[in-house]
Amino acid sequence: AVDQEWSYMDFLEHLLHEEKLARHQRKQAMYTRMAAFPAVKTFEEYDFTFATGAPQKQLQSLRSLSFIERNENIVLLGPSGVGKTHLAIAMGYEAVRAGIKVRFTTAADLLLQLSTAQRQGRYKTTLQRGVMAPRLLIIDETGYLPFSQEEAKLFFQVIAKRYEKSAMILTSNLPFGQWDQTFAGDAALTSAMLDRI
């Protein structure tokens, strides 16, 4: 401060600014760890030539995160290798940078966690902390593996509990018309779930 010839007020203002910046960086690092991304991905790193089904402008508009404020869901469908997971993580990382709590999981991992918690009598706690607490829940690989009837019901409960309360991003390599095959062949449950997505 003496070398810079700062007044006490300037020095104090500088210290407060540095403290605020350090707190923001620590919070962002903590939210990134809590999100459990398999790797950090950004929009800048995404090759938009893969996204043939959606205009680049539409995909870039998701970067505004307004869908989170409106408690809307995003579903990214397409074959393997087009970058659905990359885009989902990029949106999640943008949310983390904006100070929003995010959680990334695969559908299989989520159902394993919920079914284990149910068997151990911790279902409500796990549902509240792991599913309802994050403002944005990203569920990757929906439909990649078929669900049992019980798993399909658990997945439906996740969708129903978050419906119009918090945002989600789901990725799948299956078109909606084939989702009932994944959800134990239960067309009624699948239809009710898709209505909430």
From TrEMBL:
SUPFAM superfamilies membership: P-loop containing nucleoside triphosphate hydrolases
Alphabetized Pfam families for the sequence: IstB_IS21
GO MF annotations, alphabetized: ATP binding
Gene Ontology BP annotations: DNA replication
Taxonomic placement: Bacteria, Pseudomonadati, Pseudomonadota, Gammaproteobacteria, Enterobacterales
Statement: the UniProt record of this protein carries the keyword Cell wall biogenesis/degradation: no
CDD domains linked: AAA
Protein name in UniProt: Replicative helicase loader DnaC
Family in the record: Belongs to the IS21/IS1162 putative ATP-binding protein family. Belongs to the DnaC family.
Coiled-coil blocks: none
InterPro entries: AAA+_ATPase (IPR003593), ClpA/B (IPR001270), IstB (IPR047661), IstB_ATP-bd (IPR002611), P-loop_NTPase (IPR027417)
Annotated source species: Escherichia coli
Presence of the UniProt keyword Magnesium in the record: no
